[in-house]
Amino acid sequence: MQINAFYKNQISFGIYSPLKQYAQHCAYCGEEMIDAKDLGDEADKLLQENFDSEYSKKFFKALPPIEQNVLSELEQIKIKNPSLSSKEVIYQSIINSKNFLNNFDKKSFFKQIEQTKNLSNKGQNFIKEIQNPNTDEDREIILLKKLLRHVKTGEQQNKLKNLIVSQYILKNSSSANGLVSKLLSPLVLSVEHIYPDKKLDSPDNPTNYLYVHSYCNGARGSKNFKDFLEKKPEVIPNIQKSLREIDKNANSLHVYAILKEVCNTLKEQSGGKLDIMI
Fold first, then answer.
1. Less packed terminus of the chain by CB within 10 Å, N or C?
2. 155 vs 83: CA distance, rounded Å
């Protein structure tokens, strides 16, 4: 309780955690995380490896589906043109994207999807918002990603994926590093609140934190932690691995004391399902 009280008093000075620097793997999916300050460097490494190496594969599994498709597009260009440099691969991807969009009749395509009998009302609403002239590029890509979940026909799914990939590449192609940094951004380390923000007087203290990919953090949403574990029991060993990794890397009595409090929070919020011994 003394630890909780201390961090409650510190909250006005912003989020702080002595544990964050020791977290390397996502507590939800178990894959490696990228510190935000290292994102540009990781993008440069991927560019140096030219999209056809083990370095590329280490990120692939943890990326969201659309980012996987973008990386696959870059890898395929490299495979077909092995002499191209990484910047030339990206330049070719921009040309491919422009050609695809120039030959793609979006109006007819969305009309075909709307005529699909099994398209939900939510999917139809996504199409209406996409076609709204006031919808900006960023919002359109988000809506296209959401629409993809509602499209059942394989051919239409593939065309929709190609549309998203093309718009994604063109939207983020101001520089090679910028595109690859955007591609890797879902893997950036983020702080996940075990207690939802609105359920605590002081949710922002290290005894209420897990460390996860920004993408995995968003995937949980506002779900109650107990309900989340019931739907995703596969995260339990990854949470255990993450906390033990922090303890091992820190090798500090102060960190150990905070981790003990984190374990208590997890046990309480999971209804006893998550009882971790550090």
1. N
2. 32
Encoded tokens for 88:
């030339």
Which residue range forms the structural domain that includes residue 53? Answer: 38-184
Question: 49 and 168 share a domain?
Answer: yes
Overall number of domains in the chain: 2
pTM over 0.85: no
Three-class DSSP category at 25: strand
* Alpha helix ranges (H) inside the chain: 2-10, 39-49, 54-60, 65-80, 86-102, 106-114, 121-130, 137-148, 154-171, 176-184, 214-220, 225-231, 236-250, 253-269
**Which tens digits make up the pLDDT trace of 16-74?**
678 989 999 999 999 999 999 999 999 999 999 998 777 788 888 899 999 999 999 99
Residue 52 covered by a domain: yes
264 φ, ψ to 5°? -65, -40
Q: Which of the listed residues 157, 184, 211 is the one where a domain comes to its end? A: 184
- If asked whether residues 77 and 151 sit together in one domain, one would say yes
